[in-house]
Write a structure and sequence with these properties.
Structural class: alpha+beta
Distance between the termini: 71 Å
Low-confidence stretches: 1-30, 32-37
Largest sheet: 10 strands, mixed
Number of helices: 9
Order of helices and strands: EHEEHHHEEEEHEHEHEEHEEEHEEE
Radius of gyration: 26 Å
């Protein structure tokens, strides 16, 4: 707060008010004007890495994890590098609003950022991804298949988690997004971008398959690609996009898997992974049963009374895998 004393006859009054970067208020006593200027000058912002560090700690711990490798991965990857120039379209309700500016510090919040707004494709919610990554826990040296890579932000986080001795194969069916991902990820030697559908191609053997588009059923090609001990995490959703993230872990069998839901979720549909009957039985199960009761996934075998949901050629059970 600054106070100036100026004679009423002084011509400097107008100049001080006009030149000031502060908001003036003033009052009169006799022939003297006392002007109080409340400073509105902005202080220097913290370095952007401080924002990344806070963001990483916040989203990982909000997801119920304290995994230091996961926190480091989120704090070390520059989100702005994968989202293009700002201002950015921020998902709000059923539409988008522009960010206040192109300051990348604004991106280090738990917000969805539009990648292709006319298609409703976003760079997903960080806390949801933190929860899913904490559940499937990619580790050094593992091979990851990323389905629905977008422009590569979460691909880069996966690459950081598996390290230089691991590798990530990223599938993106939208050509424009795949091209952006290829450019954004070209500095990472352990990442390969495949501009194709991961629901039609034969996938490489993988320790983790990380899916970012909704499927009405677990694809056989995804389950077949899992190594022993491998984890598949994907949005099991109705065709309308509502559902939950299902974590599937292969033991020794190719017919029965440990399975559990991680979180409610909503995603755009995965092309090639939609089927009307499966969508209908899922919608019914989600409405009438607790997702937290699911303990295992089975395929290519008849269901039994423990069935939570029975789809075409697969079913979820409330019984633990033995």
């Amino acid at each position: 707060m600054f106070t100036y004393t100026i004679s009423l006859q002084s011509k400097k009054l107008a100049k001080i008010i006009n030149d000031s970067t502060t908001q003036p208020s003033y009052y009169k006593a006799s022939n003297v004007v006392y002007i109080t200027l409340a400073s509105t000058r902005r202080f220097a912002l913290n370095p952007i890495q401080d924002y990344r560090d806070f963001y990483a700690n916040f989203i990982v711990k909000s997801a119920g994890s304290s995994n230091e490798e996961l926190i480091f991965a989120f704090s070390s990857i520059e989100r702005e590098h994968y989202l293009g120039k700002g201002p950015w379209p921020i998902c709000a309700g059923s539409g988008y609003i522009p960010s206040l500016s192109d300051d990348p510090r604004l991106l280090y919040q738990n917000i969805l950022v539009g990648l292709s707004t006319d298609q409703g494709i976003n760079n997903g919610e960080p806390t949801l991804h933190a929860r899913c990554l904490a559940a499937c826990l990619p580790t050094t040296g593992e091979t990851v298949v990323h389905v629905g890579a977008g422009t590569g932000y979460y691909t880069a986080i996966l690459a950081a988690l598996v390290g230089i001795t691991g590798n990530v194969v990223a599938y993106e069916i939208e050509v424009g997004l795949a091209n952006r991902a290829t450019v954004n990820l070209e500095h990472l030697a352990n990442v390969k971008v495949v501009p194709a559908s991961a629901s039609e191609a034969a996938l490489p053997s993988a320790d983790i398959i990380y899916v970012n588009a909704g499927a009405t059923h677990p694809l056989d090609s995804w389950l077949d690609a899992l190594n022993v001990g491998g984890r598949l995490i994907f949005p099991l959703t109705s065709s309308e996009g509502a559902g939950a993230m299902l974590l599937v872990t292969r033991r020794n069998s190719l017919e029965s898997y440990a399975a559990s839901f991680v979180s409610w979720a909503g995603f755009i549909p995965c092309i090639g992974a939609q089927e009307d009957f499966n969508s209908a039985v899922l919608s019914d199960a989600f409405e009438s049963k607790s997702i937290w009761a699911v303990k295992s996934l089975h395929r290519k075998m008849p269901s039994n009374p423990t069935a939570w949901c029975v789809g075409k050629g697969w079913w979820l059970s409330t019984a633990e895998l033995t």
